[in-house]
Amino acid sequence: MKYDFSAVAAELSAAGSILILTHTSTDGDAVGSSVAAGLALKAMGKTVSYVVEKDKYGLDRFLEEMACFGEPLLPRYDLALCLDCSTFEYMYGNENVSRCSRTAVIDHHKTNTGYGDVNLVDGTSASCGEMVFELIKYLGVPVTRQIAHALYLALSTDTGNFLYSNTSSRTFSLLSELYAMYDDYYLIADRMKFAPREALELMRVGLGSLLISDDGRFAVIRLIYETGYSERLNITSDSLLDAVRYTEGILVTVLVRQTGQDSFKISLRSTDDAYDVSELAAAMGGGGHAKASGFSFQGSYGELEKKIRDYYGF
Ligand SMILES: [Mn+2]
Question: For strand 47-51 and strand 17-21, is the pairing parallel, antiparallel, or unpaired?
Fold first, then answer.
């Protein structure tokens, strides 16, 4: 057994009522881990409530349990079960932890601060869902179709559909176990491709305003009021960024999103080892990694563009 579940399992069996919480800006691992753990605990006869944000994929049609996310809370719980959340501050609705007598944490972020009474943290797990899957097996709870779908969602999200560098043979052996039980995960995978209608307009504004340096190596996506961007389009720009950054020849992609009259949020992506975009981010008071980083800027768009052009020399 990869994990030592004894401390967490002791907390779970002692508790009659459990409140499940996870991180802000919900994602598939947060939702999937919560639903899978919640259903398993209910099957054990526990009273379970959730403080989890509704997802953005419309997955509630596959995971009926998500209808419980908005249910009113009890005044007290025996245990807070915090999943996939590295710090207490980053937890969605963390004020509700005060309703709980004890706190148990299960997380795969190696930076987890250990804010629980018991903490099971494993930085080598690709998703929190992997840990929850093993926990459910440890507890001996049958994996229903909905639990399996929730686990698939978690495993698939945090590995970028099993493509990121964190994907391991263990991920695939857990996946293989899931496929041995059920085989209709394409329903979830298909649904995850859907985006809100605003995504098309964001794509139109972003590509319509695209600025490419003469040598073709630098691209600036201008989501600013001047090019037709508005607060209504404040949705994820991941697919827009990916469409540009994975274009042959483009080495650095800068996405500028206007957040106010004189304020901007800038995302930087590099697809070439010669460009460490965290250097520009750090110079501008932000941070991140060599291939993906970001910063905020106060001032006019003109000043910002000049700073970026001067820095990279285009
Ligand atoms: Mn995660």
Answer: parallel
Ligand 1 centroid–CA 70 distance in Å is 22
Q: What would the pLDDT profile of 35-94 be if each residue is shown by its tens digit?
A: 999 999 999 999 999 999 977 667 888 899 999 998 999 999 999 999 999 999 999 999
Catalogue the E-assigned strands of 129-286: 211-212, 218-223, 252-260, 263-270
Kindly give the distance from the C-alpha atom of residue 226 to the centroid of ligand 1, in angstroms, as a whole number: 36
User: Distance (Å, rounded) from C-alpha 91 to C-alpha 21?
Assistant: 7
* Bridge partner residues of 81 (DSSP): 20, 104
pTM: 0.84
- Asked whether 188 and 149 are in contact (CB, 8 A), the reply is yes
Give distance in angstroms: CA of 123 to centre of ligand 1.
10
Compute the distance from residue 151 Cα to the ligand 1 centre, in Å: 12
The pair of structure tokens assigned to 147 is 């639990």
Domains of the chain: 6-191 (3.90.1640.10), 198-312 (3.10.310.30)
CA of 86 from ligand 1 middle (Å) equals 9
